[in-house]
Every structure is written in structure tokens, then in C-alpha cells.
Amino acid sequence: MSAPAVPSAIxxxxxxxxxxxxxxxxCASLAASLVYxxxxxxxxxxxxxxxxxxxxxxxxxxxxxxxxxxSLWMSVFQTIAMxxxxxxVGASIALVLALLAAVNSSPxxxxxxxxxxxxxxxxxxxxxxxxLVLLIAVGIGxxxxxxxxxxxxxxxxxxxxxxxxxxxxRLPAEAIAAAGASRLQVIxxxxxxxxxxxxxxxxxxxxxxxLRLAVALGVFGGGGIGFExxxxxxxxxxxxxxxxxxxxxxxxNMMERIADFFRKRMFLRETELR
Length: 274
Prior knowledge:
Elements: H1 12-36, H2 41-46, H3 48-58, H4 65-68, H5 70-101, H6 109-124, H7 127-138, H8 142-166, H9 170-178, H10 183-222, H11 225-234, H12 238-273
């Protein structure tokens, strides 16, 4: 009996040639991108002395600024408030829109398609673009940054909540509907209890993201600790700038731990109730 023929596609030589071809195409694409963007990797090492000079001007950080400048702590509270309000208001609005965008809770197909399109448009719009428009509309300050975070949260939460709603078990909803419950009662007692853990987890995660975005938006006129960082950089007070950076790192780390604590407590309480 003759041995079965081995397909040429799985021969070691064929696989090796395919991998070499993929590697060559990837390297050529990378090189073409570097040339097109006029990127010079060697310049990073050639001009590294500028980085060393900057670090020399930044150290040691001016930690006296933390208690000598009282407005710095007000800026920290502004940043936390911007992230909190942007997340809370955005999540509340997004939950209503998600119920209209999900297949199993939307009143009609045209409404679902319209809401889905609006949510996709919001997700495609960067926060900095929204902030630049709002700075003209409402002026420079934390209010514009809060509105920007709120609008960004609506687009992000809307899709996450809608996807979670569409993945719930339909049997409880069908059972309640068969008993004569209205659409709102089905949503309240069959859909929302199933998506509540996903909603809580996404809200806490988005708060961490919005806290970082609040710092970044503050650099562009949104107020908060980000504006203090921008102010220190603009007047070339690099020691003050490093102190602000350290304060931002501590703030984000602390708020993340607090959010993890409350999330675990909420999930533990839900498990005990069950």
C-alpha cells in the first residue's frame, strides 16, 4: 500500500515560505510608514540629552506646593467631581437609550436603528473635539469638561448596556409577559436585574477612565488638576509640574482602589441576598 500524499499546503517548506512572506510584507509596511511619516528612530538616542536635561530640571519635585497652594486641592476635587458627574449623568442617560437600542426592549425597529446611529456617532466623536465646541458654547472651565465627559460616556455606555440587555435570558421576560405584565414591568423585573452586575462593573470602570480623561481635558481648558499641570508647564516651573504629576498618580491610584472596594462590596451584598 502506498502512503497517503501529504497536502503541499501543510508541508514545512510551504508554511515556512508563507511565514517569510508575511514577515517581509510586515517589515516593508513598517519601513514605508516610517519613511512616509519622516520618523527618525535614531533621533531619540541622538537627542536624549534633552530628556536628561528636563529630568534634571524637574528633580527634586516641589512638594511644598501641595500645602502652600490651597487652590491645588480645590483643583483635585474639581477633577473628581467632573469624572463623577460625567459618569453618573452619562450612565443614567445611556441606560434609557440602551433600552431603546436593544432588540428585546426597543419599541420598534426604526427607533432602535435611530438610537444605535446616534450612539455610534457619539462614540466616533473624540472628547477633545466635543470639549473644543463646548468651550466656545459655555466657556472655559470644569463645566465644559463635565459635559464633554457626559457626552462621551453616553456613547460608550449606550453600546455596552444595549449589548448586555440583548444577551439576557429571555425566559423570565417571556414568563412575566405571559402573566400579563406590561413592557415596563418586564424591563423592571426581568431585564434590569440580569444586567445590573454588568452595569455596575462598567460604571466603575468608566469612572476610572473618565478620571484620567478629566485630567487630560483640564490641560486644554477644562479646569481641575490638569489645568494646574498646564499652568506649571507654561511658565517653565518643572519642579511644580512634577509635583502635580505625582499628585495625579496618587489621586488616580487612590480612586481606583476606592472604586474596587465599593464594587466588591456591592457584588458581595448581591451574593448574600441571593
